[in-house]
Specification:
five-stranded mixed sheet, alpha/beta, two-stranded antiparallel ribbon
């Protein structure tokens, strides 16, 4: 999700973290109170920071998670997803998208727009 909207959607972020803990993820880092903040990446040429919503480890492999909710700034979200996908492939990590009811179509359209239609979002 876009940084501006994080404060509005902390409840869904917490629900996503509970789901990940229940499915065996450990060492969870998230950008909310009570968790360590994941590493941020700064875009060259712009002052924009890219921070994954959740970073977790399962079976020794690092996973980046981003939450997909309808946004007024889809371009920023597409840029973030492309960056996280590239970063995860460079380091043999995994990148997953988490979405919820009412946001499935938006998420599928966004993934299709940026040629990541092979990604299957986690539906909570």
């Amino acid at each position: 999700m876009v940084q501006i909207e994080k404060s509005e959607n902390t409840e869904f972020l917490e629900k996503s973290i509970q789901h990940l803990e229940a499915t065996g993820f450990e060492n969870i880092k998230a950008d909310i109170e009570g968790y360590e903040t994941p590493k941020s990446y700064i875009r060259k040429g712009a002052e924009a920071k890219i921070t994954p919503d959740i970073v977790a480890v399962k079976n020794g492999r690092k996973y980046f998670f981003d939450i997909s909710l309808k946004t007024q700034k889809p371009r920023l979200l597409k840029t973030k997803w492309l960056f996280l996908d590239t970063l995860s492939r460079m380091n043999s990590d995994r990148f997953k998208i988490i979405t919820t009811r009412g946001h499935y179509k938006f998420t599928d359209n966004m993934l299709e727009d940026i040629n990541l239609s092979n990604k299957e979002p986690i539906r909570i």
